[in-house]
Design a protein that fits this description.
The complex is a heterodimer of chains A (318) and B (137). Chain A is mainly alpha-helical and 318 residues long. Chain A has one domain. Chain A is built from twelve helices and four strands, in the order ααβαβββααααααααα. Chain A has a four-stranded mixed sheet with strand order 1-2-4-3. In chain A, strand 3 and strand 4 form a beta hairpin. The longest helix of chain A is centred in the first third of the chain and has 37 residues. The two termini of chain A are 34 Å apart. Chain B is mainly alpha-helical and 137 residues long. A two-stranded antiparallel sheet of chain B has the order 1-2. Chain B contains six helices and three strands; from the N terminus they run H-H-H-H-E-E-H-E-H. In chain B, strand 1 and strand 2 form a beta hairpin. Chain B has two domains: 78 residues, Orthogonal Bundle (Arc Repressor Mutant, subunit A), CATH 1.10.10; 47 residues, no CATH class. Classes of the chains: A mainly alpha (318), B mainly alpha (137). At the A-B interface, helix 2, strand 3, helix 5, helix 6 and helix 7 of A face helix 5, strand 3 and helix 6 of B.
């Protein structure tokens, strides 16, 4: 499954990057106490301080992402799931057919929506507006879509992917892979529903849930980049087309630069090793200290700015 | 809280328009540009309403951007700023955006999310597929 592969890639890259950055952090810790106590005296101290700041930012962004997600999920449960009503008979019947007995909440809400939430034993939430709007076969297709998320424990995977995307901000490819996973899990859930019940009920359900808007008949879809998640799902439903994984050259370049820089810095103890001290300064300082630190810093500025924009967008929407 | 966000929250609660506001908008959409007096006379056939009550409602609808008005002598002539379909589309999109905003950073996987971000071409393609009777891809 492409969703599983995408999630596996996020994990592999994030854990690999964590290992490199962890080693780098471990080698600067003995020197960090001196720098923090007396301040930076030379270039080696300045690089150590820079690395400490970058590491602190990564830890803060990762923990911040975890807390935001947990708080938002709890707020959602308080706000929506607390409006739970007795599930209509047909929801209970279809739920039993799909092996979802006791795992579906129906909440009173004028907006048509469904989602799967919680981590250890996920549950499915449907709004009364969605249940009213969908025919039985459409409801069955939507519940099959949600069953995929439930069985894959996708809410937990989402938390993990977002955590790594935030904490590994110096490796921007992780964030792009996490976004690709977010798209692939929806497509995989759609595929599962289509495999069981065909394309039409799911397409009808999706169409019924789209906000009213004008349409333009432009014939065949044209594969383009920058599709929203729903547009990509429609392309998949209509044309069976899979979107290729597209990582931006900028993200790849920054990530490779950051990891190469971190590896070089770790190998010379960020300028504190004896081997580094024995090298000619005119070659070693720019080539092995300033250059690699600059690569790491450039990636950190790029990734940090992206994370700040992300949080600012969430705050503005709240 | 900003005005658009308040509008989205009200829309999310199904409270974008009250009963009297809905009645006024229905009249304007049906009959075209009207004065407050026209509405009062029209609504008087089914329910008795004070002129000032209807005027307050129409001023509020103007404030919400649903009615546009032009001065004609000593009175205002009100007309709908959007057609009924356009209004339905705006309301529907606001509902979807309100939901996405409420879901925010929550850890979940959703069948319906970001549904407002679908262009007209994809919408039309999905409608064609949804109208098919045969199953399977």
């Amino acid at each position: 499954m492409r969703a599983d592969r995408a999630f596996g890639l996020v994990l592999a890259l994030a854990l690999g990057s964590s290992a490199i950055l962890g080693v780098l952090l471990a080698v600067i810790i003995p020197h960090a106490d001196h720098v923090l106590r007396y301040g930076p005296d030379d270039l080696v101290d300045a690089v150590t301080l820079l690395l400490l700041v970058l590491a602190t930012c990564g830890i803060a962004l990762g923990l911040g992402s975890l807390f935001r997600q947990l708080l938002a999920t709890l707020a959602l449960i308080r706000g929506l799931v607390s409006k739970r009503v007795i599930a209509p008979r047909r929801v209970r019947r279809i739920g039993r057919e799909l092996g979802l007995d006791g795992r579906i909440d129906v909440v009173a809400d004028t907006r048509p929506f469904s989602f799967t939430y919680w981590f250890r034993r996920p549950r499915i939430c449907l709004s009364t507006a969605l249940v009213r709007r969908l025919a039985n076969d459409e409801l069955r297709a939507v519940l099959m879509h949600e069953r995929y998320h439930l069985r894959q424990r996708d809410p937990l995977r989402v938390v993990i992917a977002r955590y790594f995307a935030a904490s590994m901000y110096v490796v921007p490819v992780v964030d792009e892979l996490a976004s690709f996973y977010a798209l692939q899990k929806e497509i995989a859930a759609d595929d599962d529903a289509v495999r069981h019940f065909g394309t039409t009920p799911l397409a009808r359900a999706l169409y019924k849930l789209l906000p009213d808007a004008p349409e333009r008949e432009l014939g065949l879809l044209i594969p383009v980049t920058g599709l929203s998640v729903t547009e990509a799902r429609i392309e998949r439903l209509v044309a069976g087309r899979e979107l290729p994984m597209q990582l931006s050259p900028r993200a790849i370049a920054l990530s490779v630069g950051a990891l190469a820089g971190a590896t070089v810095l770790a190998s010379i103890g960020a300028g504190t090793s004896v081997a580094f001290a024995n090298l000619p300064p005119l070659v070693a300082v720019p080539g092995l200290l300033v250059g690699p630190a600059s690569l790491l810093f450039a990636a950190a500025v790029n990734g940090g700015a992206h994370q700040v924009r992300l949080v600012a967008g969430l705050v503005a929407r709240a | 809280m900003s005005a658009p966000l308040r509008r989205i929250r009200r829309a999310a609660a199904g409270e974008l328009l009250g009963p009297l506001e809905t009645a006024v908008m229905d009249k304007v959409w049906k009959r075209g540009p009207l004065t407050v007096r026209d509405i009062v006379d029209d609504l008087a056939r089914t329910r008795g309403l004070a002129y000032t009550t209807v005027m307050t409602v129409m001023v509020r609808l103007h404030g919400k951007g649903l009615l546009a008005r032009e001065r004609a002598g000593k009175t205002y002539v009100y007309r709908a700023a959007f057609t009924r379909d356009e209004h339905r589309a705006v309301l529907s999109r606001d509902l979807a955006r309100g939901l996405v905003s409420q879901l925010g950073d929550a850890a979940l996987a959703a069948f319906s999310a970001e549904l407002d971000e679908v262009d007209a071409t994809h919408r039309a393609a999905l409608r064609r597929l949804a109208s098919k009777r045969t199953k399977g891809r």
